[in-house]
Design goal:
It is built from eight helices and five strands. The strands form two sheets. The chain has a three-stranded parallel sheet with strand order 1-3-2. A two-stranded antiparallel sheet has the order 4-5. α4 packs across α6. 23% of the residues are buried.
């Protein structure tokens, strides 16, 4: 769902409306159905929402309407005005979607944008989506230690920062040979597996202009 007062609901609604044009596979959204229908009206869409209990049900209902796994909001969502009272619903949607992947009910999670300040106000202690998803992965596989890697991608270029969500002043002491090698290894595997690039070319940018340290 992302933040219900943000752009996430519109992204999902527009993606659903363009499902055939973009050859999208069936998907479901964890969100408040009433919020989605209200947002659809706001942007001039007539999108039917179909309540389902499990992401697997999206396969059969996808052409009849947008499959929605209901997560109720504490308060009606006003576009552009995030409310901390809805923070728990946002967190719950991420937890439930991630659990569905580990249960085999879904193939992947797509997270809509969150408003971190709103989540922080409710007691959320993670710097962002990336670290929270890593925590949920570790919970699903006790004893594991997930190394999250964040990629920014477009058709021409994929960029992976070695460090994420920390002050720039902390970067030099956080960078280690082991961290760089592990990040590059994960990136190379992902480029082969998910982007179908047989021989990925990876270039490393230096921390300082001369890359001498």
């Amino acid at each position: 769902m992302g933040d219900p007062s943000g752009i996430g609901p519109e992204i999902t609604l527009l993606a659903y409306e363009q499902r055939s044009k973009r050859a999208l596979p069936p998907f479901a959204i964890y969100a408040d159905p009433a919020m989605l229908e209200a947002r659809a009206r706001d942007i001039g869409l007539i999108t039917k929402c179909i309540t389902v209990a499990d992401p697997r049900a999206a396969t059969d209902s996808f052409e009849r309407g947008l499959p929605v796994i209901p997560i109720s909001l504490a308060k009606p969502a006003a576009p552009g005005d995030p409310d901390p009272e809805n923070a728990q619903a946002v967190i719950t949607s991420i937890e439930a979607a991630t659990a569905a992947v580990f249960a085999g009910s879904a193939a992947a999670v797509v997270t809509n944008p969150i408003a971190k300040s709103v989540l922080y106000a409710s007691g959320f202690s993670y710097p962002g989506h990336t670290e929270f998803l890593a925590y949920l992965a570790d919970c699903a596989k006790p004893g594991s230690k997930t190394h999250p890697v964040m990629m920014l991608a477009c058709d021409e270029l994929r960029v992976v920062p070695v460090t994420i969500h920390i002050p720039l002043s902390n970067v030099p002491q956080e960078l280690t040979q082991e961290l760089i090698v592990e990040t590059v290894r994960i990136t190379a595997e992902a480029l082969e597996r998910y982007f179908e690039i047989d021989s990925p070319r990876i270039r490393l940018a230096g921390l300082n202009p001369h890359a001498g340290e």
